[in-house]
Amino acid sequence: MRSMTGFGRARIQIDSLSVSIELSSVNKRNIEVVLQGPREWQTFEIQASKIISEEIERGRVRVSISAQNSDSYSNQSIDFSTVEKDAKSLLSTMEKLGQEEKISTFSIIELYKIKQLQDTSLPSFDTVTTDLQKAMKDALHELIEMKKIEGAKLLEDMTDRVISLRKYSKGIKEQASDMPKLWKNRLIQRLKQNDLDLDLDDERVLKEMSIFSEKCDISEEITRIDSHLIQLNNTLTSHGSIGRKIEFLLQEVGRELNTICSKSTESECTNIALNAKAEVEKLREQAMNVE
């Protein structure tokens, strides 16, 4: 079992560029890949989607690419001759535009920012494709490992809850075994308390009792719940994308429990079914995180 949430990162060096690729995934019913990065490398989104979709079937994966020049101005000594040259050029431009001929420290800093952006222009996408693909696969491997770790925690919690559901199912079965008989005895007792006679040999009476007995019989619902729980337990330990199947099985278990609550004539049986429904809802919340 793998969680749909996770994070992975990889760094590579391309000439003087330090490139970082980060992958983060969150819950989503289908697979979706979104890339955020330098405009020059936006076409990498197609390849990134292909690489990721081969390994991940569900979730929204955000790919973030950043590139920084290792030889940036922040790591170099200031070339004062360059400062003087740039300042004179700026003064000349200001004079032509009729602006006040005054340069502040802030103006020089802005000049260096512009030059730094010019010096960190990125290489063409074709020349870095192989490197980006390798870094993507490394980050994806780290992401999947984290998804597995989170998935193991989900598996432990969900397995315990399935065991609780089995106990609830057993409790419902015990409470429901004599439900038709108990209803019959109560009916006879109420009629006697009101001095009403009930002819148990009357076919009409027997037919009505038979119909109600069938209506309050929940043996079929219990059998289906037990079957769904067996499938659910097997699914939890299977490989591949299992989130949707888990969600479907839990939906079916919840449906059977709703039917039991509507049919039950015993308060204790109804209470057990309601507790089981609460456990199913907790499982559904966890299933939303399963890939």
Main attributes?
9 helices; 4 strands; alpha+beta; single chain; 4-stranded mixed sheet; 291 residues
Explain what the structure shows.
Among the domains are: 73-119, no CATH class; 150-287. Helix content is 63%, strand content 12%. It is built from nine helices and four strands; from the N terminus they run E-E-E-H-E-H-H-H-H-H-H-H-H. The protein has a four-stranded mixed beta sheet with strand order 1-2-4-3. A hairpin with a 2-residue loop joins strand 1 and strand 2 (17-26). Helix 1 runs parallel beside helix 4 and helix 7 (219-236) packs antiparallel against helix 8. The longest helix is centred in the middle third of the chain and has 52 residues, at 125-176. The mean pLDDT is 83.
